[in-house]
Design goal:
Blueprint: E1 2-6, H1 12-21, E2 25-29, E3 41-43, E4 55-58, H2 63-73, E5 82-85, H3 91-100, E6 104-107, E7 110-111, H4 114-118, E8 122-127, H5 130-140, E9 144-151, H6 155-183, H7 188-196, H8 203-207, H9 209-213, H10 215-218, H11 224-240, H12 246-260, H13 271-278
Helix pairs in contact: 6-11, 6-12, 6-13, 11-12, 12-13
């Protein structure tokens, strides 16, 4: 299948590569600087060229960039064109575009890290009709290991924001637990072994161990800035429904502290460093 793919960032590159490996013909475009050659993928110079395909996918960082792509770049798409928003932009943007544009627009944001995108083990949450879900599912299966139909357009984005609100709270909970253990003179590696095997030992706790205990060697799975952006979108949604979410508000504040401390491009586990700074503790 010929597929147009917009967004060759940290997540988009391996996702597009997985589509090509699955046998699809990929036209790729990125609104930022040239990201270099991708084997099996034809990189084009404008979003307009993506409309040669009847199916396009965007994996862009925010709602403004995604809206610009759809409204300005894909306007020449033929009738029946389907565009899948896989970046995390918030449900309102998706619903607005789905209601205003003549093409079909659904959302399918993903949950998982760059390494999981590389191995096609991320999860996607799809907002659209049942017919649209069945149409897109084989394509999504080339990039993801699980696909969930969450409801109409925009519902996938709402699910993604809810997931990342939980992740932000988990990261802060782990960081605070480590500080409590440290205050009690525990060896942090020993404590982490306890934590991983305790009632709180969610899978996330296990695979984030190195990020918390040896951040210099762990690399960046999801940066502070990205999680803060997503949590901000989640809180915007909550506030529109007059919800009070004190845990999410606290996590957002600490992510803000991390950003102000120059940690925005570091892994989200660096909330631990932000809490150390807040408490005038040395950053290990």
């Amino acid at each position: 299948m010929l597929i147009g793919f917009a967004g060759l960032g940290r997540m988009g590159r391996p996702m597009a590569a997985n589509l090509a490996r699955a046998g699809h013909t990929i036209l790729a475009y990125d609104p930022g600087p040239n990201k270099g050659v991708l084997e099996g993928i034809t990189v084009v110079g404008s979003a307009v060229e993506l409309t040669e395909a009847s199916l396009t996918i965007s994996m862009l960082p925010d709602g403004a960039t995604t809206r610009a792509l759809v409204v300005e770049g894909l306007t020449g798409a033929a009738d029946g064109h389907l565009h899948v928003v896989m970046g995390t932009v918030g449900p309102e943007v998706v619903r607005e575009m789905a209601g205003a544009e003549r093409m079909d627009i659904i959302d399918a944001p993903v949950s998982g890290s760059v390494s999981m995108a590389e191995t096609a083990t991320i999860t996607t949450m799809v907002g659209g009709t049942a017919k649209q879900f069945e149409r897109i599912r084989p394509v999504l299966a080339a990039m993801t290991s699980a696909q969930f139909h969450t409801g109409p357009a925009g519902s996938g984005s709402a699910a993604k924001l809810a997931v990342n609100a939980v992740l932000a709270a988990l990261s802060q909970g782990i960081a605070e637990g480590l500080l409590i253990a440290e205050a009690g003179d525990l060896d942090l590696k020993v404590f982490y072994d306890v934590l991983r095997n305790s009632a709180a030992g969610a899978p996330y706790v296990g695979y984030k161990e190195q990020a918390f205990l040896s951040p210099g060697a762990a690399g960046v799975a999801a940066p502070v800035s990205l999680i803060r952006k997503d949590l901000g979108l989640a809180l915007d949604l909550a506030h529109r429904q007059q919800l009070s979410l004190p845990g999410a508000e606290a996590a957002y504040m600490v992510l803000g502290d991390a950003t102000e401390a120059g940690l925005g491009d570091e892994d989200m586990a660096q909330v631990l460093a932000a809490l150390r700074l807040r408490n005038a503790l040395p950053i290990s």
